[in-house]
Specification:
The complex is a heterodimer of chains A (221) and B (294). Chain A is of the alpha/beta class and 221 residues long. Chain A folds into two domains: 2-116, Response regulator (Rossmann fold); 133-206, no CATH class. Chain A has helices at residues 9-15, 30-33, 39-51, 68-75, 79-83, 94-103, 147-150, 177-187, 191-194, and strands spanning 2-6, 21-27, 55-62, 87-90, 108-111, 113-123, 126-129. Chain A has a four-stranded parallel beta sheet, with helices on both faces. Chain A is elongated, with a radius of gyration of 22 Å. The model of chain A has no long low-confidence stretch (mean pLDDT 95). Chain B is of the alpha/beta class. Chain B contains eleven helices and eight strands. Chain B has an eight-stranded parallel barrel, surrounded by seven helices. The longest helix of chain B is centred in the last third of the chain and has 22 residues, at 245-266. The mean pLDDT of chain B is 97. The chains are: A alpha/beta (221), B alpha/beta (294). The A-B interface holds A 152-166, 169-171, 178-179, 181-182, 191, 194-195, 197, 199-201, 203 and B 79, 83, 105-108, 110-111, 119, 121-127, 130, 157-159, 162-164, 166-168, 170-171, 173-174, 177-178, 186, 229-230. The structure holds iron/sulfur cluster (2 copies). The site of one iron/sulfur cluster has 10 residues of chain A, from helix 7.
Chain lengths: 221, 294
């Protein structure tokens, strides 16, 4: 899921400096699980903005905020409230925010959150980064543990000299990805594979912006 | 005095030291330290933004030291350069007359003085070694023909005290497979551990220089134990430094370093020693003399 963090209240208020009235949009998917775009977060934002003298003309929870067409349809009933607002504050990820930029051609749309990473929910409200969407998965070669993401140096061929009792030199809070990979490949009987040199990543697979169109299977007659 | 590669390949006990370029353009002290080492060491490493702290680039300093009469070892990390910059720097090194390159991944930017920088790591040490091999054979990384190949003697680093050790050994083997001719080790103090490491390293056709780091006082030894992964200073040595008192600590440290070099040479534990004095390079000749070298 996409992990978002709420911006500091002061920063949001500063963004809305020239704006008197605001319409809020949340998202029922990732941003709700992160608590940054849930109904509760929207209610809290309303309170904050009203305390700052702003008028909140209304709010809406998108089902999937990054889904442009669906969200556009969902917004129809709120047309009057939206028209009455000087700006829209989107409480989802950067993709959801830009979905609204696309829908509202002439209206100001601002983000309420910082979008940080693709995360696994490893405990309730704890998110860990395991995959950074490099475009070419290589974890078949690394025991199913991603060094591109979980080694701060993205090393593909074994530990640096800084591995420290199984922890990472970069932070004592991170386990060394390569200590984990070794231990797992030992358990799964794949150490031989670990001896093979892994080539550098193909960064052309990660160039932005990307577009991906799933073509419908043509029925052959 | 033989050049670094020549000494190492001839089987002579080979000595290297280190030169850390300063931040800023006043290089007087650095050059004077380097002068002290002339005729005493076979090679001299020039660090590359060591600890991710911004300093003068290693390539320019390598050239200055080679003009002085040294045989510099160009340390090249993958932290600050993508594969284009790496290759152009390697070719640059060749045309500047630099013969040796030490291939490293590089300390993370979070360790340094520009913590908001973008770490590059397009390559890492193993791939960098492969890349040097390609340039030496006359093609760039992608296989495009070059007008004139490089001729660089490539080496790498290894941490014999790494914990866990097995993944480190596996990477050591990969580095050999990727073309490393020589290794300089992270600082070692426990000779028994080092012997065990060398027993395994000796199975490969590769030269190893033992890393000797001068202990300046007990505080430094404690700091290394606490904060530098892969370095373990035995309590016995810390006690020696303590017993020497404030005045005598450095001298005791020099004795310890000299003793290590002597043992390694006499017992043929390694092919040479890489003596790191971090800012006290002018003490290196004295250490070597105490070790019975030169
Ligand atoms: S290699 Fe890592 S970053 Fe790339 S797709 Fe696989 S898990 Fe994700
Ligand atoms: S200690 Fe391990 S995880 Fe940390 S940078 Fe080194 S290899 Fe990567």
């Amino acid at each position: 899921m996409i992990i978002t963090k709420a911006k500091e209240k002061g920063d949001v208020v500063a963004t809305l400096k020239d704006v008197k009235s605001v319409f809020l949009i949340g998202c029922s998917e990732c941003a709700s699980l992160c608590g940054t775009g849930s109904p509760e977060a929207l209610a809290a934002m309303k309170e904050t903005l009203e305390a700052e003298g702003k008028k909140v003309t209304g709010s809406m929870m998108a089902k999937t905020g990054c889904q442009v067409l669906g969200t556009k349809v969902e917004l129809k009933p709120a047309k009057e409230e939206i028209d009455a607002a000087d700006a829209i504050l989107v409480m989802s990820c950067g993709a959801g925010t830009q979905a609204m930029v696309e829908v509202f051609k002439d209206k100001r749309v601002y983000p309420a959150n910082d979008t940080t990473f693709l995360g696994n929910m490893t405990r309730f409200q704890q998110f860990d980064e395991r995959c950074s969407m490099c475009g070419e998965c290589i974890i078949d070669k690394t025991g199913g543990i991603c060094p591109v993401t979980t080694c701060p140096k993205g090393i593909l061929n074994g530990p640096c000299g800084g591995t420290n009792n199984g922890m990472c030199e970069v932070s004592p809070d991170i386990e060394c990805a390569w200590a984990k990979i070794y231990a797992r490949m030992e358990r799964t009987g794949e150490l031989d594979k670990m001896r093979e040199i892994v080539p550098p990543k193909d960064y052309s697979k990660k160039l932005s912006p990307k577009v991906w169109v799933i073509e419908k299977k043509k029925e052959e007659k | 005095m033989k050049k670094f590669k020549e000494a190492l390949e001839s089987g002579e006990f080979t000595i290297t030291a280190e030169c850390g370029p300063p931040k800023g353009t006043d290089i007087e002290e650095m050059l004077s330290h380097a002068k002290h080492l002339l005729g005493k060491v076979h090679g001299i490493n020039v660090t590359d933004n060591q600890s991710a702290v911004v300093r003068i680039g290693s390539l320019g300093v390598c050239r200055l030291l080679s003009e002085m009469g040294h045989d510099p070892i160009f340390q090249l990390t993958c932290r600050d350069r993508n594969r284009l910059a790496i290759q152009s720097d390697l070719m640059g090194a060749h045309i500047l007359g630099i013969k040796n390159v030490l291939c490293m991944t590089g300390d993370h930017v979070s360790a340094g003085d520009h913590k908001t920088a973008k770490p590059v790591y397009d390559f890492e040490s193993v791939q960098l070694l492969q890349c040097v091999g390609k340039l030496n054979s006359g093609t760039d990384w992608e296989g495009n023909a070059m007008k004139g190949a490089t001729n660089l003697y490539q080496g790498a680093v290894v941490t014999p005290e790494s914990n866990p050790l097995e993944p480190q050994m596996l990477k050591f083997e990969k580095k050999i497979k990727a073309g490393a001719n020589f290794f300089q080790t992270q600082a070692i103090y426990d000779m028994d551990n080092f012997k065990r490491f060398m027993d395994r390293a000796r199975k490969h056709d590769v030269k190893v220089l033992a890393g000797i780091l001068l202990l300046k006082n007990a505080g430094m030894a404690n700091f290394l134990n606490k904060f530098v992964p892969g370095i373990t200073v035995p309590q016995e040595l810390i006690d020696k430094l303590k017993a020497a008192g404030k005045e005598g600590a450095l001298d005791a440290g020099m004795d310890i370093a000299a003793e290590q070099v002597r043992i390694i040479k006499e017992q043929g534990l390694a092919d040479g020693a890489h003596v790191m004095a971090i800012g006290l390079e002018d003490k290196v000749p004295d250490i070597l003399q105490r070790a019975g070298i030169a």
